[in-house]
Amino acid sequence: MKMLVKSILASALLVTAIPSFAGLTVGATRVIFTGDMKEASLPIMNGEDSSVYLIRSWVSSDNAGEKVPFMTTPPLFRIEPGQNNTVRINQTSSNLPQDKESVFWINTLAIPPEAKVKSENSLQFSLNTRIKLFYRPVAINKPDEVKHAYEKVTFNHAGNSLVAKNPTPYFINISRISINGHDVKEGYMVAPGSTVNIKESASSGTITWQSINDYGGLTEKATAKF
Q: Which residues constitute the domain of residue 170?
């Protein structure tokens, strides 16, 4: 029996494992949508010599049942070899909190053309690349505060856990964590006014961390005692 298995792979890291997707790239690791913007844009590039893809784009939320106040255009388009295109993100509702950031996901699903000759038990892959979409209200869109927000994270013990607390109105992506000179493999995103438990901890000592900035790069190191 002939069977065509379609598998959606949700991690962009799988690009290197699938040669046919090697030249298809998304031109950012995150998008910041400020409250005074009419729209934001995300470039999509097909750097391959021969492969054509159908791209489906949409914005989603990790919160089940949440109505997403953003839409993408075009929601579906064809991208030819060597072609660039742009996905535009528009806000459809103004009901988001105005005193803190909100986060969503921009999805770009790349669907390759079906093979002209299908072999038995053939395997066709689609690749969904997800990047974060941060909504930043006008009232907190203060570049200097955004730049130094990660330095305001505090660390304290609660039972056997090391707790990171974010007192700012911004999402902080803690990365490159080192506890008493020991590197922590995981990174953590701390929501505004929230806490997360860091799995690897010690009873006391020094923690050093960096954060991912608006451009997808790393901030300078920050250090704190706990």
A: 142-225
